[in-house]
Design brief:
Blueprint lengths: L3 H15 L9 E3 L8 E3 L2 H8 L3 H11 L6 E7 L3 E6 L1 H10 L3 H4 L10 E5 L10 H19 L4 E5 L6 H13 L22 H17 L1 H16 L2 H25 L5 E2 L9 H10 L4 E3 L2 E4 L3 H4 L7 E4 L7 H16 L3 E5 L5 H14 L6 E5 L4 E2 L16 H18 L8 H21 L7 E2 L2 H4 L7 H20 L12 H10 L2 H11 L3 H20 L8 H24 L9
Parallel strand pairs: 5-6, 5-11, 6-7, 11-12, 13-14
Antiparallel strand pairs: 1-2, 2-4, 3-4, 8-9, 9-10
Bound molecules: arginine.
Length: about 600
């Protein structure tokens, strides 16, 4: 499958070659002046520089070399030497029609099929997921879906924080509250209980309370650190208890990820890499990449390696012998490259961890543990409250993801009621619709921003049925479904696409850009491209629809073409929304 723009690029590349220049000058883009043309090619300007000629002369030569083709009906030269291109209505209708098969054919759109491991989500066991985890989950999942759609081989990993100090803090608190539990009895033999001594809800309060005590008192902190070290060394009681805490936490996290419709190929906690660490540490020592510094084992960087930037060395082993977050990530790179033959490793993690990834990637490059693989940190900004400060609950704590999701769904319900939507539908369906609207609102509001900018969490704004929001897009898609349903009830059928008015032409032209937008979103790993596109397309559809009374149209060819246009628009909208992880209800 080739987009209209790509087909034009092929034609212009050949024309440049025929006129004695390199084909790369033939890149065609969308028109900067839509009132006079559909596309434009600006290659004459750089070509003129290279060949020391006037850009207009080159543009004329290229146009002369175009020859005849069915796509282009008009070309003209604008300004210093831009070539304006108008395509035929037939080219537009045929490219639009092809979009009905976009989901089956999108795997032909890109040649970049590098084996990719994407690491996102990564909540921490025992600590509630917060709004930052909402961002990594939504953005990471959109990238995962995008790559799946484009046929890029991919493994997604939920890098659960299940091995850190918080585990020691929780175990410590339990050993004080419930010292009689068998986990804390060094003489215990045989199996440990097979159910957890605490519920998920209890965990939510145990961790913050214990963390607070440890932070206030060095001796308490030391105890938590010792327990963590003991857990790592394999203390059987701690390991058994740890397993149950992880399971309890995981069940809760799974519910939240399911509610978001976010899924992973692997849930692989930090603990997974623990046993692999000694070997890689040995390897780093014997290859002299790692050296001792103030009792710790580190990978230092030279000024040349950091490009003159002041950078702390990469820590592998602390002076007390403990492994760190960085040790695990380093080991995980090695493991992922070996196990999955990864050619690209992507980390969707808060931009506040940027320094860690700069160090990690430098250490990987320096030690050569991932030869030929590209490592990418996809950072994202902070979610703020309407007061402009990092988003908190009313009580001042960190908002839990589960609460956030329920709030969004409740808000969706409220707004739907206000708008008289889904009135009289069965209760179950109303619930399903409210869920879809709430999740669409959350996801779209997050993805529409350039991922590195901070944004304000404002459910009221996210949930509006007009403007650049998830609910507006769902509403548009559902409206098209309802038109198609009505038409089917009256026995009206779809017919060949043709152009009857400028509004339709504009909508179709926009639809034909969908394959290009998918590719741009992939090449930049920016889902926001898709968001802008979906929104503009929905607007173009609503404009077209306001001017065409489809159901009451008596000319069957016209009505049939319009219905086909509704169908293609729906296909594109639903396809693009599903890449963002947003699903469309049948009715609202
Ligand atoms: N658990 C970490 C956090 O909550 C995120 C993990 C990101 N992934 C990684 N490989 N470091 O901040």
């Amino acid at each position: 499958m080739k987009s209209l723009r790509t087909q034009l690029t092929d034609i212009f590349s050949h024309a440049f070659i025929a006129a004695g220049m390199e084909g790369r000058y033939g890149t065609v883009g969308i028109s900067q002046r839509p009132e006079i043309s559909d596309f434009q090619c600006n290659g004459a300007l750089p070509a003129a520089k290279a060949f020391k000629k006037k850009p207009r002369e080159i543009a004329e030569a290229v146009i002369a070399a175009l020859g005849s083709n069915a796509l282009i009906t008009k070309t003209s030269i604008d300004g210093p030497g831009f070539i304006n291109i108008t395509v035929s209505d037939a080219a537009i209708t045929s490219a639009s029609g092809e979009l009905n098969g976009i989901d089956q054919n999108a795997n032909t759109l890109t040649a970049d099929k590098r084996m990719t491991v994407i690491d996102f989500g990564g909540p921490n066991v025992a600590k509630p997921m917060h709004v930052g985890h909402l961002r990594t989950s939504i953005i990471g999942d959109a990238l995962q879906r995008l790559m799946h759609r484009l046929g890029v081989p991919l493994v997604s990993i939920n890098h659960l924080g299940d091995w850190g100090l918080q585990m020691g803090m929780v175990i410590k608190a339990l050993s004080e509250d419930k010292p009689d539990l068998p986990y804390f009895d060094p003489k215990h033999t045989g199996a440990y209980p097979d159910t957890s001594p605490v519920t998920a809800a209890e965990l939510d309060t145990i961790y913050p309370a214990s963390a607070q005590r440890c932070k206030a008192d060095d001796a308490e902190m030391k105890k938590a650190q010792d327990i963590t070290a003991d857990l790592h060394r394999g203390n059987p009681g701690y390991r058994a208890l740890w397993r149950q805490l992880v399971d309890v936490s995981r069940a809760e996290l799974t519910r939240e990820f399911d509610a978001l419709d976010v899924h992973f190929d692997h849930w692989r906690g930090e603990s997974y890499y623990h046993d692999k660490i000694p070997a890689i540490v040995e390897q780093m020592k014997s290859s002299h990449h790692a050296v001792m510094s103030e009792g710790a084992l580190v990978i230092p960087f030279t000024e040349e390696e950091t490009g003159g930037r002041e950078l702390p060395p990469f820590m592998l082993v602390k002076s007390d012998g403990a492994f760190l977050y960085s040790t695990t990530d380093f080991t995980a790179v090695d493991s992922r490259v070996k196990e999955f033959n990864a050619e690209r490793l992507i980390y969707v993690v808060d931009k506040r961890q940027s320094l860690h990834f700069v160090q990690l990637f430098l250490a990987v490059k320096k030690t050569g543990i991932a030869p030929g693989a590209e490592l990418l940190h996809i950072p994202f900004g902070t979610v703020n409250g309407t007061d402009g400060k990092p988003f908190k609950t009313r009580a001042g704590g960190v908002m839990k993801l589960g609460d956030l999701i329920s709030q969004a769904i409740d808000k969706a319900r409220e707004k739907m009621k206000e708008a008289g939507m889904a009135a009289g539908y069965p209760e179950d369906e109303q619930k399903t619709i409210a869920h879809a609207v709430g999740i669409a609102a959350l996801k779209f509001a997050d993805l529409v921003n350039h991922r590195e900018t901070d944004y304000i969490f404002d459910l009221d704004a996210f949930m509006r049925f007009e403007g650049k929001t998830g609910p507006y897009l769902l509403y548009t898609a559902v409206r098209i479904k309802s038109i198609l349903r009505k038409a089917a009830e009256r026995g009206f059928s779809e017919a060949a696409l043709s152009v009857f008015s400028p509004g339709e032409r504009e909508l179709m032209l926009r639809l034909t850009r969908y394959p290009d937008v998918l590719v741009s979103a992939y090449e930049t790993l920016l889902p926001s491209y898709l968001c802008e596109y979906i929104h503009e397309t929905a607007q173009a559809f609503n404009m077209f629809y306001a001017n065409c009374n489809i159901i009451n149209e008596t000319d069957a060819a016209k009505r049939g073409s319009w219905l086909s246009l509704c169908r293609v628009t729906l296909t594109v909208l639903e396809s693009a929304l599903s890449v963002l992880g947003i699903s469309t209800p049948e009715r609202m």
